[in-house]
Specification:
The protein is α+β, with helices and mostly antiparallel strands. The chain has 20 helices and five strands. The protein is extended and about 90 Å long.
Length: about 575
């Protein structure tokens, strides 16, 4: 029975993550197996897609290479979206969760919610985003993704398993009543014995987490018995984990027994994550004489797992890099071939028909005209791109950062004047209407006051913003365009601080010399690594500094925090 091409869904056993290829393959087969009444979508077969799917079914992450090939050459949007969906699952299974999210988002961008044949892939993408968010401990976001996924599943069994994921998210958020209610709905539906055991065990664990006095043992044992009868090793792995946790405080000897059982099954399944969880339980429950051996085994498996996942991430990055490089090389080669053909054709024409001066001249004139038109077209395209970049930059500076600043003020000041907020939003609206052309700034407010308001807008109870030397004299004789650029530079620095630095103290110092204005920024956050210097915001900052003939120095090799020195020439 083959995996359906139009949608793949990963369903994790609640409280058991991350799982290995075998479980992911088993679950995807269970959900998307062939059915007689299933709607089929006619899509031209792609050899790379089929090869990737076969390798995926075998649990071989080399499938990523073939799916990446599909995204590079295939024109059918649904096929490319499915390839990205597979890539997302492969990356998630290898521990590359951020890469997995990127691939899922790329898949979603190719899909149309109004086309029913896209629904299963849309559901799988949202579900995958939910699962990776769970792995990254962003449980509220995961819950939102699961809620988006459920309406798009076209099969009831898929919706049931997605509901199990949603209940898991509620459980991790300690929203136990909501999780229990979902499990009641699931258990009332007709499912296989294996799935019934899963939902029963998950529901019992949720009730026990909600109320420690709840007697979950009968349900745990019922689920265990079903899984033993079904010879479901992955299910047994979960049951032993639940029972070990349940007995941890009630009966440590029983908890130790089930922890050992879990370790045996996890070892049999070659599941490194589950072995680590079982060893963690054994370390906590075992006598002191056995802890050292368990701890050594734990360290060895954990080191091997991290090495394997890092290697997988690097492998995915190499595949993407080689693919992009290959496309760039092909374009260069095509250009060289075209130019060589042109030169050969031109030489042959001149040699073969040199005696026909009129014809030769006509050919040369035609070629020159064509080349001129191409140059004009390129210049026009360049102007369009430059205009697009300018508009994009203004959207980023005026609208995006402006909205972020208003949001920061509202977040940090619950009692903020509602009318004031509306006025600021209306101001942003008016600016956005004029975004495609330059509009003079008619604001008569003193610039040092504007700077003070801008910087303090990012101050919170957890983050102090200190300014030194921001007086009207500092800004004397500073050109209006320089002030405009500096205002957006300061705003960009504060936005980056707010998003990334985790600083609790930010200091701005302004110094004025006869022909130079210096701005010193420092914070005690986590700093910034060199590889991430030039994200979009900082690129804009550097380009703005260049535009006003200034200079900027980042001091990153600090024990903690970040220092920036901006120097601007003034008359």
């Amino acid at each position: 029975m083959a995996v359906e091409k139009t949608a793949i869904l990963f369903i994790f056993e609640a409280n058991r993550f991350p799982l290995k290829n075998y479980l992911l393959l088993l679950l995807s087969l269970a959900i998307f197996g062939c059915k007689e009444n299933k709607t089929k979508i006619t899509i031209k077969h792609d050899p790379d897609f089929e090869r990737g799917r076969l390798l995926f079914d075998e649990g071989n992450d080399s499938a990523y290479y073939y799916f990446n090939n599909v995204t590079s050459k295939q024109k059918n949007r649904l096929t490319v979206a499915e390839a990205y969906c597979y890539m997302s699952m492969i990356q998630s299974n290898a521990g590359d969760f951020y890469g997995s999210q990127e691939s899922a988002v790329r898949s979603l961008k190719l899909l149309n919610e109004n086309k029913k044949e896209h629904w299963d892939c849309i559901a799988s993408d949202y579900n995958q985003l939910g699962l990776t968010s769970m792995q990254l401990k962003r449980f509220s976001l995961a819950l939102a993704y699961f809620n988006k996924a459920i309406p798009y599943f076209t099969r009831s069994e898929s919706q049931i398993l997605a509901l199990n994921n949603k209940a898991w998210a509620h459980q991790q958020l300690k929203q136990y009543p909501e999780a229990v209610e979902i499990y009641k709905r699931i258990l009332s539906k007709k499912t296989s014995r294996a799935e019934y055991a899963r939902f029963l065990s998950n529901a019992a664990r949720t009730k026990w987490l909600e109320r420690a006095s709840y007697n979950a043992l009968p349900e745990f044992l019922t689920a265990l018995q079903i899984r033993q009868n079904e010879k479901n090793d992955w299910g047994l792995n979960t049951s032993y984990s639940h029972l070990a946790d349940y007995y941890a405080n009630k009966n440590p000897d029983s908890a130790l027994f089930y922890a050992r059982q879990m370790y045996q099954v996890a070892t049999k399944l070659n599941s490194a994550d589950d072995q680590l969880e079982a060893l963690d339980k054994l370390i906590k429950l075992s006598p002191a004489s056995a802890v050292k051996d368990y701890f050594g085994t734990y360290q060895h498996i954990n080191d091997s797992l991290q090495t394997s996942r890092n290697a997988a991430k690097n492998q995915f990055a190499v595949v993407r890099y080689e693919s992009e490089k290959s496309k760039a090389d092909n374009l260069i080669l095509q250009k060289e071939i075209t130019e060589k053909r042109y030169q050969i054709l031109k030489r042959e024409i001149l040699l073969g028909f040199g005696f026909l001066l009129f014809i030769s001249t006509s050919v040369i004139a035609f070629l020159w005209y064509k080349k001129r038109q191409q140059k004009l077209a390129l210049e026009k395209e360049s102007a369009i791109q430059e205009n697009k970049f300018k508009i994009s930059k203004k959207v980023h500076d005026v609208v995006a950062n402006g909205l972020y600043r208003v949001m920061s003020e509202m977040e940090n000041n619950p009692d903020i004047d509602r009318v004031l907020v509306i006025d600021k939003i209306e101001e942003l609206y008016e600016k956005s209407r004029d975004i495609s052309y330059d509009k003079p700034d008619l604001d008569q407010q003193e610039f040092n006051e504007k700077v003070s308001i801008l910087l303090t807008a990012f101050a919170t109870k957890d983050t102090k913003v200190i300014t030194v030397g921001n007086t009207a004299l500092v800004w004397d004789n500073v050109l209006q365009n320089v002030k405009y650029e500096l205002e957006h530079i300061l705003q960009e620095l504060m936005v980056n601080m707010k998003k990334h630095s985790k600083a609790d103290t930010v200091v701005f110092k302004f110094e004025r010399e006869p022909k130079k204005l210096s701005i010193f920024y420092s914070d005690n956050g986590i700093g910034i690594v060199e590889e991430k210097f030039f994200n979009n915001g900082l690129q804009n900052t550097v380009s703005r500094i260049d535009a006003i003939n200034g200079s900027i120095i980042f001091e990153t090799k600090l024990e903690k925090g970040l220092k920036i020195h901006i120097s601007i020439p003034v008359s």
